[in-house]
From TrEMBL:
One of its GO terms (biological process) is double-strand break repair via homologous recombination. It holds the Pfam family NAP. Residues 26-60 form a coiled coil. It comes from Salvia divinorum (Maria pastora). This is NAP1-related protein 2, variant 2. One of its GO terms (cellular component) is nucleus. Residues 217-260 are annotated as: Disordered. Gene3D superfamilies: 1.20.5.1500, Nucleosome assembly protein. Residues 225-260 have a biased composition (Acidic residues). SUPFAM superfamilies: NAP-like. Belongs to the nucleosome assembly protein (NAP) family.
Amino acid sequence: MGAEKKQKVGGADEENNGTELIDGELVISIEKLQEFQDELEKINEEASEKVLELEQKYNEIRKPVYDKRNDIIKSIPDFWLTAFMSHPALSELLTDEDQKVFKHLINLEVEDCKDVKCGYSITFHFNPNPYFEETKLTKTFTFLEEGTTKISSTSIKWKQGKGIANGVSAEEKKGNKRPQTEESFFSWFNESQHTGDMEEIDDEQIAEIIKEDLWPNPLTYFNNEDADEEEFVMDDDEDKDSDGFEDDDEQDDDGDEGED
């Protein structure tokens, strides 16, 4: 009995030592793994810095080309209105009244801060128009150290009877010619809480769509190339459907002849 107890105790001690050994090896492995992760993190930070430096360099190279592009765009009637209305997301944000205002839009500019980590601004340039006093409306996004974004914008001074806070002119509000729930794109320049369609796409999302999608190549949307492709696909489907109907008709005719 005593020998058996000693054997059991001895076996338990060996098992405990083995467990401790495994735990110790696991801790060492995890510590080494953490060292490699820390090293990778430093490399990734350096890479991000280099990418930002490169982006800043090429922003300066792009600037004169964008300026030349803008000069050409100014000579094309309703260029930005057409591009906006052809964009699947931005077109949803323009009311009928907004489209009238956009007919006076002659230029759009997206400009990064000199330090691209600090933010960017989007500026709409208008001809003198009957809607508001300004010829330039700017919205600026400043990235703060704590990870938040400070948003500031031009306060629009609407001309008498032309306020479009809810997507309609003041005259139309009085007559109640259209519902007042439709929100104007120009409320994007307000600091007040948005309602209606704007809730679905917030301030920064709208800015990102303009900056990352529309601004780099607005000609794609002006030419409505995406829509043309969709129409082309639909036409193909219609051809297939029509061919299918023709085949069905031919089969029916053959069947009728066989019965005769």
